[in-house]
Each structure stands twice: as C-alpha cells, then as structure tokens.
Design a protein that fits this description.
Blueprint lengths: L6 H5 L8 E5 L3 H8 L4 E4 L3 H4 L11 H14 L4 E5 L9 H15 L3 E3 L7 H8 L5 E6 L5 H4 L9 H17 L3 E5 L3 H10 L4 E4 L7 E4 L1 H4 L17 H17 L16 H4 L2 H12 L4 H14 L6
C-alpha cells in the first residue's frame, strides 16, 4: 500500500483473507521498524511496564502517553497510529474522555485512540465517534482493570463469561468503534466474536481467526528477557545479543583497545604547516599529562590558551 493507512482502510480489512499486522511502539526507533511491516501501530499504555518498569499499566499518565505518541507518529509513514487512553483519563464521563482524546489527537497527530471496556463504555465510544474521534475498542483481559479482575487471567472461561464478551463486542461495534482488540480470550469465544461483529477484531492471545494480530514488539523480539506471556511467540533474542555487545564494549574499554585510531580525530590536513606552534603545544600537553595533579590543570589551560588566534 503506497498511501498511509486510514481508519477506513482498517475497517475494510474485515473478513479479508490477509489479516492485519499490528505492533506496539513507544519511541521512534521501534516505530520506524514497526512501520516497515505493520498496518497499525499502537502506542500502548503497556509502556508503563515495558519502558518504565512499573508493575502494571495504571501509573502511566496522559502527558506521558502524549509524549510517546508524538515520537511514534513522527517516525511512522505508512501505518495507522493509535494511542491508548490511560487509566483515569476517560472512565469518569464521556466529556472527560473527549477532552483526553482531543488532546491526544491534537498534540500527537495520531489517527485514533484506544480505550478498554465493553458495554459500560459504549456510551463513551458513541459520544467520541459522533464528535470525530475514531475509537479502537478493547475487550477480554483489560490490564487497566487488573485489580478488580484478580490478575492477568484469560477471559471467557465459561458460558456466562463468553456471553458477556459477545455482548460487549456487539455494543462497541454498534457504538461506532472501528475495530476491537480481543485480549487473552478463549479461542472459541474469540472466533465467535469475530464472526458476530462487522468490525475487524485484532487478537492478542485470542484466535487465528481474528481479522488481525498484535503483540508487544519488545516481547516478540525477546528484548526484555525473562518469561513471556503464553500468547507470545519470540522471533528473536535481542536481550542476549545486546548483553553480549555491552560486555564486549566494557572489555574493550578496560583493555584500552577502545577507542582505536578509527574512532578518534586528528588534525586536518595541512594544519601543522599553518601553525608551527601546534605540534609543540600538543606534545607539551601530552607530556604534562603524566605529572602530578597539583598544576596539570593550570598547565593544560595555559597551553590551550596559546592555541587561540591572536587579534590584530
């Protein structure tokens, strides 16, 4: 696709043979990489855990989301960028949600916002979409509700829970959401939701039948190390590669093999002939460097001052 993805393009992907590719990004480096392959890039509030080392997504603020969103939007040329509304920035009322979402779109340049919640948030989604703010819904495991649901457990475990998820999906679709993230939901339930709604479903620990898939980029790249959620497939082990590279750097520094001649600067060609004093001055600075500290600073300062061009 030559032009940037739009909300309409995402909607048009419903039922398409080729699923949507979606990734997270929190900074321009990851955003540039994700933009090469993704149809949609999400600036997720998971950055609280991935980038800031928090135990949950709850501590992240709207200002933080906007700062990261601005960086990601600046780096993306093709993918549709969506920014999460963080906990406490939209739940109080539709008006609060509009104020927060409007700030996100205006200050980042993102195309849409994402919010968590099913039927309870349908009124808010309708309020936002009626006022020109595209909304990506999020049902199933909702990390912002981790304290009330008793941890990070998969959803849709029984018939009653499955029926509620289906009702949530239909309510958000009817309210005008352009897509739906379905997280950590029993496979058969996610499949049924995908078949039941006319908007694209984006699975994360859901079903291969979803209209798209998303993962946290750092998870699939093995960037953080440690144990990953069950639904993550690791395609690389960048944590180990980075650790090896850093150890090699530390070893070179301690062995005084870095920097080598290739990483330092010399005088420009012809500099010695233009200033006959320079070689002697630099040589004297080098000699003085091995003397006691008592006067070395003054000596170097004196020599450096001689390098300044004389006026007149």
């Amino acid at each position: 696709m030559d032009k940037p993805y739009s909300v309409a393009d995402i909607l048009a992907a419903k039922g398409r043979a080729q699923p949507l590719v979606c990734l997270t990004a929190y900074d321009q480096i990851m955003a540039r990489l994700a933009d090469q392959v993704a149809d949609l890039v999400l600036v997720g509030d998971s950055l609280a855990m991935v980038a800031y080392g928090q135990a949950s997504t709850l501590p992240v603020t709207l200002d933080i989301m906007i700062a990261h969103g601005r960086s990601v939007v600046a780096a993306c040329r093709k993918a549709l960028v969506v920014v999460d509304l963080p906990f406490g920035s939209y739940q109080a009322s539709p008006a609060q949600a509009f104020d927060s979402a409007a700030r996100v779109l205006k200050e980042t340049g993102a195309a849409a916002v994402k919010l968590e919640g099913g039927q309870v948030m349908a009124e808010t989604v309708e309020f936002l979409t009626a006022r020109g703010i595209p909304v990506l819904g999020h049902i199933g495991l909702q990390p912002q509700s981790v304290n009330s649901i008793g941890g990070y457990r998969y959803q849709g475990r029984d018939a009653a829970a499955a029926a509620q998820l289906l009702a949530d999906a239909k309510a958000l679709a009817a309210a005008g959401a352009f897509g739906l993230v379905v997280e950590a939901v029993a496979e058969g339930v996610a499949r049924a939701i995908t078949q039941a709604v006319a908007i694209p479903t984006i699975g994360i620990g859901a079903s291969v039948a979803c209209d798209g898939q998303i993962l946290v980029s750092e998870d699939l790249l093995g960037w953080q190390g440690g144990r990953a959620p069950r639904f993550v497939k690791r395609y690389a082990d960048l944590n180990s590669l980075a650790a090896t590279a850093l150890q090699a750097f530390a070893a070179d520094v301690r062995a005084r093999t870095f920097p080598s001649a290739e990483q330092v600067y010399g005088l420009e060609d012809g500099a010695e002939s233009k200033s006959s004093d320079s070689p002697a001055i630099y040589g004297q600075i080098t000699q003085d460097d091995g003397q006691d500290n008592g006067g070395s600073g003054a000596k170097i300062g004196s020599k450096v001052s001689q390098l300044r061009p004389k006026r007149g």
